[in-house]
Amino acid sequence: MEFGVQLGNLEPAQYRANAQAAEALGYDLIVFPDHLVNEGPDKQMDPKSKAYDHIVMAAAVIDATKKIRVGHLVLCNLFRHPAITAQSLMTLDHLSGGRLVAGLGSGWTETEFKMSGIPFPPITERLRMLDEAMACILSLWQNEKTTFDGEFYHFKDAILWPKPIQQPHPPIIVGGGGKGLLRIAAKYADYVNVVPDAGKRGYISMEVARKMTNDSFREKVSFIRDEAKRNGRKPDAVRISNFVFMTMISESKEASRKTAEMMASMFQQTADEILASPMMLIGTPEECITELKRRAKDWGTSQIIFTGEVGQNEKLMRDLYEKVLKHV
User: Fold this and answer.
1) Structural domains of the chain sorted by starting position, each given as residue range(s) with its CATH number in brackets
2) What is the reported pTM?
3) Per-residue pLDDT tens digits for 281-316
4) For a designed S-S bond to 80, which of 30, 84, 182, 289 qualifies (C-beta 3.0 to 4.6 A apart)?
5) 235: how many CB neighbours lie within 10 A of its CB?
């Protein structure tokens, strides 16, 4: 099992310090979001939330670390032409000595497109753009020249040199939850980070988040496996990644149950469903260890990425790793 931390809404020095702490503890991966604004559920937003350029920040963290893998969850395809994305990620792979994880996605936060004037097509078009972009990026990384005449992107004898250190290409992680996105992940990705679907609405909906349950996660995994097979890949060719939005280590089983009961009404779920929710990890160290092992067995997860307070609070990052993760 691999364990990662998403860093965001920090000052530059904190990014470096928290990444170094994660590496020293034994985490496997640091990832960054890719947004102009940081928007929460149902369009909640703090306009002063820090939104640095996380390609630049990835380079800073790469310079501050030695062995931990570094990437994005995920880069927004609409922000950059695939030729630029391919070049930027190739550069990060060289800066890191081959530690890059290439995270790619279709884009979903409509607010940042409206405010900037960057075109925000319907989700079906965005998915076709992502499909083409991934094909182009992989070709630029692997082939001497790339010629591609698609619906959105057009290359003629395009050259990218040098190639990434990792061959045939850096590992690709795709994040999302809608069937269209999962089809693309099954076609190209090495990892798919399964989260509530936000692409069609253009924001994170609590209504949709409430539907992300133990059973729905398992259904999405089965869909990915079937799609991988349909694309001529082995069903387990795409590794399953779980994104944990909230982590709480309790002092007792009673405290775990009380927390779950308090959250149950908000999510319109039972306390047991909250404790098994893919979006959360709540429990004593022993309960958390058992739950993560269950996810590996029942869902086939081989990667867990923690966001929120874990990436911002070094003590929680340390407690989580030392009390839970190193025992999984």
Assistant:
1) 2-327 (3.20.20.30)
2) 0.95
3) 999 999 999 999 999 999 999 999 999 999 999 999
4) 84
5) 15
